């Protein structure tokens, strides 16, 4: 399928972030609280300010960027931790001992809201009306959603402190995993700090006055096309399908180019934003159509045990899939349920040659395994399971330990 790029955004929308991007000078304020009996640190924590600072730098999640300010005593003393495109980036650590806080930190203190009244900025791929924008709003209701033209840009927006979080769709109940996004998780160093599951309700959109009989093609995000394939056929739409970067971008493209032979699959909100008509409402092949998104941040959140947590890891092992059952038994023995397992090609080492003196040499494909399990890294059983996994693996990374989205959902009515 030919990939169409969404047109440049019209005046209805803010322009999406694009690469390359020069980061503005920023002052970052990193504020963290620490309580020795509730936080499990990799190393024991001393009482000196330096120890506290480095521990909090690892664990703090209340990371807030601010507009440049005239130097104050505090900013003059800030630790300069790097520069972004030639601009100094400073981090000012403000350590707040737990005992001085009026109440204990809750999970919401730790992940979503920035302090000092600043609005959380959440980067997503697509244009307004995309499902990723709705997912950002579900995870962080008062956030400022920042459209980006590529997932790569959304990741970089967080890495360069332009945004505080990125939202990334990783799998769908009908369409399966979004493999490219798994690869991106590994290529970048961001941490998963949350997840949301969003019921997805697709509409068939066309310009006002266009009828189904006029259509020569349907365009949308490949996942949306996959999720509506049977319904499109049932509607008699045996026309060309073309993949674009996001659903709302497809609607915008049809509108901006006045395409009367093309329909887009997108949300009802996209129809409203881009002046399109809904030809068919709810065209996903099954009403239980849910997409899971993960939220990414520069710093991990502190794992807890007082509510259900999930942990995502990725690993590889030298002996191919033959030791996979040993790795997975580390979870089974501890009654830790896996909620997801995904394999991807091991790009650094895609082929493994296995010689047999009698039969010759076989070449096996090498894989990376992504596993989600239902436990928090603050639980001893999860720590022990990972210690055991490490014995069998040549590479292991914890992508994040984060609260499970427990919000009940019912089949969407299209108001997402
Ligand atoms: O294109 C979008 O709107 C997205 O956010 C990606 C996507 C596509 C289809 C279903 C869920 C998410």
Automatic annotation (TrEMBL):
Domain Prephenate dehydratase: 121-298
Compartmental location: Plastid, Chloroplast stroma
Top EC class of this enzyme: lyase
Region feature (Disordered): 63-84
Cellular component annotations (GO), alphabetically ordered: chloroplast stroma
Reaction(s) catalysed by this chain's protein: L-arogenate + H(+) = L-phenylalanine + CO2 + H2O
Functional pathway: Amino-acid biosynthesis; L-phenylalanine biosynthesis; L-phenylalanine from L-arogenate: step 1/1
EC number of the protein: 4.2.1.91
Gene Ontology biological process terms, A to Z: L-phenylalanine biosynthetic process
Keywords from the UniProt entry: Amino-acid biosynthesis, Aromatic amino acid biosynthesis, Chloroplast, Lyase, Phenylalanine biosynthesis, Plastid, Transit peptide
Gene Ontology molecular function terms on file: arogenate dehydratase activity; prephenate dehydratase activity
Domain ACT: 312-403
PANTHER family, sorted: PREPHENATE DEHYDRATASE P PROTEIN, PREPHENATE DEHYDRATASE-RELATED
Function: Converts the prephenate produced from the shikimate-chorismate pathway into phenylalanine.
Protein name (database record): Arogenate dehydratase
Originating species: Pyrus ussuriensis x Pyrus communis
